[in-house]
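Protocol check, entry for the methods section draft. Step 1: assemble the input record (protein sequence plus ligand SMILES). Step 2: submit for complex structure prediction. Step 3: store the structure tokens unaltered in the notebook. Ligand used here: adenosine-5'-triphosphate. Step 1 record:
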Amino acid sequence: MVNIRRIGEEQRVRETSKDVAKGGAQQTPESNGMTVEDLSAFYGSFKAVTDVNMQIKRNKVTALIGPSGCGKSTYIRCLNRMHEVIPGAYAEGKVALDGQDIYAKGADPVNIRRRIGMVFQKPNPFSKSIYENVAWGAKINGYRGDMDELVERSLKQAALWDEVKDRLKESGYSLSGGQQQRLVIARTLAVEPEVILMDEPASALDPVSTQKIEDTMEDLKKKYTVVIVTHNMQQAARISDYTGFFYIENMGDPGRLWEFDETSKMFSNPDRKETEDYVTGRFG
Amino acid sequence: MSVQAGRGGERDPNLWRRNVRASKLRERGVTTLFAAFAYLSILTTFGIVLVLIFETINFFRQVPIFDYLFGTTWRPGFARAEFGVLPLIYGTLLTTAIAAAVALPIGLLAAIYLSEYAPTGLRRWLKPALEILAGVPTVVYGYFALTFLTPLLGNVFTGISTFNALSAGLIMGVMIIPTVASVSEDAIYAVPRGLREGGYALGATKREVATRIVVPAALSGIAASFVLGISRAVGETMIVAIAAGNLAQFGGPLESVQTMTAYIVAVSTGETAAGTITYQTIFVVGATLFVMTLILNILSIIFVRRFRETY
Ligand SMILES: Nc1ncnc2c1ncn2[C@@H]1O[C@H](COP(=O)(O)OP(=O)(O)OP(=O)(O)O)[C@@H](O)[C@H]1O
Ligand SMILES: [Mg+2]
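Step 3, stored output:
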């Protein structure tokens, strides 16, 4: 249905956007974490994101920020081939996980998505019990170990266990929004991915739930590589090691990765004026 | 910011004059009209049920209810009349079972295909086409069963009767496929995209997402489509009256049977005088049919309550 196979076959236009990808990331060997090269994303004939280059470091939290509509969600969905699930949508460029291009011919999106999990903006628990929600992904991926143990461990990692341990048989929908989001995180952790992508996981949540999810994130980065889209500057500053700022200069242009660097630099003295204006709240 | 402030407060009363009295009157008139139609339809149904009950009570004054419910011979209108309804129930259940065996799986698979696999373009014209198919008059199906399918089946099953349950049941199945498929498809299509994406994000294949996330989430709608389909089969009249024969017996699928609906047709179109016991059987059998579909609906509600996965 989707023609994503154009990737890599077209000549690569390596222009200025390339040097945005530095941010100390270049010391890392390419085989560690994710490497994005000249990635563009389309909805039919509409180009939503263009020429992104980025090094996503292993066991670090990378935050993506930027004004609404600049392509953060589109971009993050390209990182595990979820973008192409939308009819007519496709991506061009290269995204490598530990040196392997996930868009290469013959790369299986199903397998890639198991290795690169995703938490969506809106909590989307399955219409199943809490237990089943967590166990489902592991089951379809042929997990042979102790399922009860896996479910418990995943729920504990997502800081949800204590709240649900006595009601595992109840529907995932019986939970509050913040609990549902942590349930979805637990579900993602249960398939033991290498990278976790989160698209505004706390946008609909109250401060307490947000705090819980942020605490979870601290733990997560010990084991996982995390990429998170957020509109909350404090959150980005607090939890991330690297920050990418997406921006559209002129109306109607596709979104670009405007600046990418260590979070401390991005929030203290970024190279570009737009970044500074944005992180200090002067526009947005 | 404050350029337009205050404009609302200064609005010119001469430019804004709503006719409050007229609009209130119109409001009341419309409400009454709608209410009248609502009550009319309720009263009509109520009236029909009353007649059914009334005639049924009359009937059971003459025939013991036990003989009716558990008797195995249906022979009204004869000198030694017998009123055991079981052969008619059997005929109805047999043709319905055959129809359900055809329509439920095919309808569900078609719905899954249409919603989850078919390209958008195909879905856009296949869905309305299906719904048009649901509007084909059943008398057409009936004659199709009798004049086309039965001879065809005769090639396979030698000794099949000209009027048989199999042919009628199969065609009835074909008739209700669009209903099942269309209603199921609505339910499956309505499952939020987020649930599917959640599945994909865990490394599920399309088939796993379709069969293990989407279909369970749409279960209540699918169950509704099944009940609707089965109810249509139970109540279907023309096809069975034409193609299934009119013998109230416990025949096999290759033999003639008589359904409750076909019996009602046979008696209503004959010259039975009003007030006779044979005449009353129409209402009793009708009431029985009514109760059966009612039970079916109640069962389905219980089923859906138990197994529903909400989203
Ligand atoms: N399904 C879609 N079909 C067509 N265009 C889309 C679709 N989804 C998003 N877009 C367009 O792509 C562009 C980028 O959208 P995207 O959702 O990636 O922005 P975003 O940065 O995530 O914004 P927000 O911060 O509001 O979530 C927008 O112009 C949007 O209108
Ligand atoms: Mg977004």
